[in-house]
Prior knowledge:
Largest sheet of chain A: 8 strands, mixed
Strand order of the largest sheet of chain A: 6-7-8-3-9-10-12-11
Structural class of chain A: alpha/beta
Strand content of chain A: 15-25%
CATH architecture of chain A: 3-Layer(aba) Sandwich
Structural class of chain B: alpha/beta
Oligomer: heterodimer
Number of helices of chain B: 11
Mean pLDDT of chain A: 89
Helix content of chain A: 25-40%
Number of strands of chain A: 12
Shape of chain B: globular
Amino acid sequence: MSKSLVVVDGIKKTFPIESGFLGSKKSVKAVNSVSFEIKEGETFSLVGESGCGKSTTGRLVTRLLTPDEGKIWINNEEISKMNENRLREVRKQVQMVFQDPYASLNPRMKIRDVVGEPLIIHTKLSTAEREKLVSEMLEVVGLNSYHADKFAHEFSGGQRQRIGIARALILKPKLIVADEPVSALDVSIQSQILNLLKDLQEEFHLTYLFISHDLSVVEHISDKIGVMYLGSLVESGTKESIFANPQHPYTKALLSSVPIPDPRAKRERIILQGDVPSPVNPPSGCSFHTRCPYKMDICTKTSPPLRESAESDHFVACHL
Amino acid sequence: MSENIIEVKHLQTQFTRDNKKTVVLDKVSFHIKKGEVLGLVGESGCGKSVTSLSIMRLFKDTTGEITNGEITYNGTNILNISESEMRGIRGKEIAMIFQEPMTSLNPVMKIGEQLMESIRLHLGYSDKQAREHAISMLTKVGIPRPQEIINEYPHQLSGGMRQRIMIAMAMSCQPNLLIADEPTTALDVTIQAQILDVMKQLQADEHMSMLLITHDLGVVAEMCNRVVVMYAGRVVEEASVLDLFDDPKHPYTKGLIGSVPKLGQKRSRLDSVPGNVPNPNQMPKGCKFAPRCKDVMPVCWEEEPAITTTGPERFCRCWLYREESRDAHV
Lengths: 320, 330
């Protein structure tokens, strides 16, 4: 049994928004009591639809945002209240890959500097040593060392995402938080990047927190999955148990909504009514009750806690 | 050929930039039968959307122009008719839904006004009739409380609701052909399922023909009868949806289908197509897919293959099939 690299316990994050003529204060509960663990060498994926809080959770784990409540341990160090100086040490082990390969690379920096910048910040290597590492890393992610002298705009989307991955890997981190790393890419390129991420995980024994809205991608890459809805984790478990035996009505509907690229596939589709409610004004009780086909009285009143279901390691937050 | 609602033949469209002409579509030929859903698939920049804009002749204020080919709709070549005649077809007989429902609705116009505009114009209804028709269309696409919604503005609605409004608008004049350009790409999966459901229902009820443009093979498998695969501005394969997924012929189609992770299927690695889509200004000389193709042969670099028949109602643009092929698409 490998040990847990990441432990997240009951984190909450609320963003204030101002609205109304007199600037009356309102807030968005982006993440509401989310807890999970990621074991070393595993891929844990957060899935859910836009606005469900999956990206905010990713940013809390990397401490790009500070949680309002709750605790986060990375490699047995509690980081939720850590100051910037000490965080810098932690960040050597935690790196991030972003969704938009166009916006996340500085257009005025050469690739050599983009990929090498973390080394300047975190190490005292000489220029020559740094450049050697950069060249090696570019080869590892499937680019060439001569690419180091180019600028980001000279690359295609898939190549830019490789550059983003090289930058994340250069410090030899333990954990990579990848926020929708393939959703801006065409399918033929997407599969190249997914294969690369899998190969790198094996080679460097990486742990991934993978954030995506695409269930087919998540099924392909994950060991464990957490399903989020409106800021809360509604179900979590191993990939096999979530896909073979989904418990929460939202997970069931989500799985049945994914179009399968096989015209012979026959299945029953659960079509949810209505839209995701606004997180500014979330429904009372279970946040899913406005769209749930199995709504009961209790659902409108109390919010169900995340409980272990019949299978071990499979948690679900539902009154059913 | 009256069973075809539209026939596109040898379509060539180009754009001009800095006095340089770039051919974006070349030798694009396909047809849509009455009551059929034809899928047009391919990756970014393959010319899917330009094809739909060419059919609608929507190149005003751009440098795009159609430089060759015919588009026959109901027996007339719509590339030869005047702009005012085209205006009578656009929106009334051929309607279109765009990808981004926020940017395709006018933000300062009430929903009802936007819907009623084309109803009054094309159907000649009075204000009162148009209003009733608008409300009935909104009900058809599953908008709750349509009487109130028609007095609201687009920003008051969610993405899914806006896309329903777009569908109601496109369907309001009972078009013969609906062109849907990535209608669900901007939406979440549970909302996508709702919208696809509405579109399927309406298409079946009205026996309407549809051109569905998408990059999502899952959506294709679910919605379409036949599929046209495009790559680098060319049609590379055309087949019925079952044939295409059972037995893809073109190496690009094979790569595309292999690179999509499929729910419920365990594979440790995905197939992938190496390399990138070529830049339209620097197209390879022969087959446009040659630089990325697993089965590339010397002839592929020299000459672009013609589109040839590989079976009943199946076409493919690839040198691999030239022996078994009969004469090309006429």
